[in-house]
């Protein structure tokens, strides 16, 4: 296990991946799904608040950093018309499920349940981007996700005590970014007619 301050270093590295993705969005080199990125801005902040209420230390900042760069990506996609992916009906269904998860958290007001619903909501709104990246890897940039994955891995390795609140969200962020990096690194599948 690394010293806990490595979580802050990892958060900075993960943030750099997100800022790089925002830059690529402004340049029109990636096509973010706005539904995913809107909620990726919000849900980590909910998880961050739940972690803080449970006394999670520096590792919680990795969760906060997960929500900051998506705001830049979302804004960037609004400035560049070519830098967004067409939203489909299924994206709205995932978003609705994510919102219902947040409502369930509000009803329970129990930190671990809030944390679980926030994590579930984030997973649900990530699915449109995971599906898009699987089907159209050329619309993403594997390097941005890989940099973020490295940062979140450092945060995972700096978890001081393996509790649900300390480790679940940052572990999820590592696995999600690693998975997106692998999917985006693939070559588009040739369609045989």
Tell me what the structure shows:
Helices cover 75% and strands 0% of the residues. It is mainly α and 193 residues long. The protein has one domain (5-185). The longest helix has 25 residues, at 111-135.
Characteristics of this structure?
about 190 residues; mainly alpha; about 0% strand
- Low-confidence runs: none
Q: What's the order of the H and E elements?
A: HHHHHHH
Structural class: mainly alpha
Number of strands: 0
Strand coverage percent:
under 5%
Topology:
Layout: H1 5-26, H2 34-53, H3 60-79, H4 89-108, H5 111-135, H6 142-157, H7 164-185
Short summary:
This protein is mainly α. It has helices at 5-26, 34-53, 60-79, 89-108, 111-135, 142-157, 164-185. It starts with a helix and ends in an 8-residue tail after the last helix.
């Amino acid at each position: 296990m690394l010293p806990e301050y490595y979580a802050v270093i990892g958060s900075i590295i993960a943030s750099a991946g997100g800022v790089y993705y925002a830059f690529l969005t402004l340049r029109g080199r990636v096509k973010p799904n706005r539904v995913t990125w809107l909620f990726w801005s919000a849900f980590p902040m909910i998880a961050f608040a739940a972690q803080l209420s449970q006394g999670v230390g520096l590792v919680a900042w990795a969760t906060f950093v997960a929500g900051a760069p998506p705001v830049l990506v979302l804004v960037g996609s609004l400035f560049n018309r070519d830098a967004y992916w067409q939203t489909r009906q299924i994206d709205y269904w995932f978003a609705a499920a994510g919102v219902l998860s947040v409502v369930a958290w509000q009803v329970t007001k129990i930190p671990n349940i809030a944390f679980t619903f926030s994590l579930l909501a984030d997973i649900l709104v990530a699915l449109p981007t995971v599906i898009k990246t699987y089907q159209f890897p050329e619309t993403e940039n594997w390097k941005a996700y890989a940099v973020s994955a490295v940062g979140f891995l450092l945060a995972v390795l700096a978890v001081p005590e393996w509790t649900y609140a300390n480790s679940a969200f940052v572990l999820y962020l590592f696995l999600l970014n690693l998975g997106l990096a692998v999917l985006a690194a693939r070559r588009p599948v040739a369609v045989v007619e």
